[in-house]
Specification:
The longest helix is centred in the last third of the chain and has 30 residues. 76% of the residues lie in helices and 0% in strands. The relative contact order is 0.16. The chain has 139 residues and is mainly alpha-helical. It contains six helices and no strands. The protein is elongated, with a radius of gyration of 18 Å.
């Protein structure tokens, strides 16, 4: 299987997963929250923050999907590297709030690493197409 095919499968799976995750937080934040590693359900109207997380996740999935469908593979590589910051931040947040260390590293840390690796693979795939042409040698 070529690098392009592997990258396409990874990006498509990532986009679908992030869209699903976003919709889960938007539609049922109370059932989605226990799996993210935070120790407590937010007090009062704190579930609004979880819906915001869902909207963020959903938007990230749309960006991945649109860039993949339109063939902007190099831009997708850079966007994936940027989007890897979000689960890394989630990992730091879980750790800072005395949440599950296993969830912090096992869910958020691994997700961040996988997204970053996929971004790097896209940049590797597209680097030759964007490399400067060699200069002509004088005769």
């Amino acid at each position: 299987m070529s690098l392009k095919n592997v990258n396409t499968v990874l990006a498509a799976a990532g986009a679908l997963f992030v869209l699903y995750l976003g919709l889960s937080f938007i539609l049922t934040p109370e059932t989605s929250t226990p799996g993210v590693g935070l120790p407590n359900w937010p007090d009062g109207d704190g579930d609004g923050f979880l819906v915001m997380k869902g909207i963020r996740e959903f938007a990230m999935g749309l960006v991945i999907g649109i860039l993949l469908l339109t063939g902007h593979r190099r831009a997708l590589g850079w966007v994936l590297l940027m989007e890897a910051v979000a689960p890394f931040g989630d990992m730091i947040n879980v750790l800072a709030h005395h949440g599950s260390v296993a969830a912090a590293f096992g869910i958020h840390g691994l997700t961040s690493a996988l997204i970053a690796l996929t971004g790097l693979l896209f940049l590797r795939e597209t680097r030759r197409a964007h490399a400067p042409a060699p200069a002509a040698q004088p005769a």
